[in-house]
Amino acid sequence: MALRQALQLAACGLAGGSAAVLFSAVAVGKPRAGGDSEPRAAEARAWAGGARPCPGVWDPNWDRREPLSLVNLRKRNVESGEEELASRLDHYKAKATRHIFLIRHSQYHMDGCLEKDRTLTPLGREQAELTGLRLASLGLKFNKIVHSSMTRAVETTDIISKHLPGVSRVSTDLLREGAPIEPDPPVSHWKPEAVYYEDGARIEAAFRNYIHRADAKQEEDSYEIFICHANVIRYIVCRALQFPPEGWLRLSLNNGSITHLVIRPDGRVALRTLGDTGFMPPNKITRS
Length: 288
Fold this sequence. Notes:
Blueprint: H1 2-11, H2 67-70, H3 81-92, E1 98-104, H4 122-137, E2 144-148, H5 151-162, E3 168-172, H6 193-210, E4 222-228, H7 230-240, E5 258-263, E6 269-276
Parallel strand pairs: 1-4, 2-3, 2-4
Antiparallel strand pairs: 1-5, 5-6
Helix pairs in contact: 4-5
């Protein structure tokens, strides 16, 4: 009974674990692949957000922008009471909805020795054209394009931008490809443990920097495009929906695909599309 209670506490985040603790308790006493009967250690991963609520329980302050969390209740004027509190809360409340379009780069030459040599293939350039046409056909007033600084993402952005004249673009290293967190279930052929350590914090920083509800000063809904990489997008989707981020590798994204996240003023998040390439002919679709 004590063990069962301990597992429940760990699963709900009440035992003080990190994001990596989620569901790891079920592995206690279960033999690992390779015959090792030792339980899997719950490793602390500070970049993955710390302790999370029990699975299925939505954290309304996931982006640390919930108005009540931004008001110092200790400084409340007892005489003005609830009226003053309501006014202060309104000052922090978001009013607009953010539409975030996450675009995976097009097919590229994977055999390039250097990153700068991993340019788009002829098919990849066609894919980018199709993605640009699709975005333009939506008839939305896009506010900006933020893209990874890697060659394949830059070239994809160059082509898509031609179909969205006047939309500003910004390059960032935060959105570069990497391994965000050790996947669960693990993959035996790919264990870049040092890479998780190096890339995880950066990709989590990208999530925290770009994925959140609108600023309180934003009056109108925004439509923003982020052109980057499969691992980054998959991790962002899991984090935004408050799914276990360790499950990022269970998702699959085609080249040039469109993933559409919606963040409401109250912080609720919806996934409109995941990896959509329905606008491409079947013979143009790849996943490399």
